[in-house]
Amino acid sequence: MEESLISEARSGKASSIEKLYKHFYGYAMSVALRYTNSRDEACEVVNDSYLKAFNKLDQYSTKSSFKGWFRRIIINTSIDHYRKNVKHYSLLEIDNASSESYDSDAVDSLTKSEILNMLQELPDILRIVFNMYEIEGFSHQEIAERLEIPASSSRTYLARAKQKLRDKFKALNEIRDEGAIR
Known about the structure:
Belongs to the sigma-70 factor family. ECF subfamily. The protein is mainly alpha-helical. Helix content is 74%, strand content 0%. The radius of gyration is 19 Å and the shape is globular.
């Protein structure tokens, strides 16, 4: 079904383009939300990603997964969005993060929305580096090249992101514990 939909969309059939958009919209939003501060920004990234994908649909090879091809477009569009708006963000002070232990059972109790909220609360550069390294599997050198930063900064940003997530996780657990005591 997906192959015929893509084939029809390549030929410019409007109904197929619309079906393809609707079919992958939820997936596209889930990827974009990990890289952006808000739902509005994610919508902007998703729409820009769809424009790029539909304009380059003839470059998609059916030998690979459309979902994977489209994910790369969304990630690259998210990075472009960050670069375009970086002048509006303040640069972070880079500190080394210390490691801290955590209760793995408590991590399992986190909901998808709590995890997403914690990620979205991270400063942009930390969230992007965390997603690229931990979720997408980019190396620090690849991240450095794409974000035009030193690889050492990528490593530091990742450590900082993990520390901030630990702090947010700890604060969330403290709130939960207080609620359980009452």
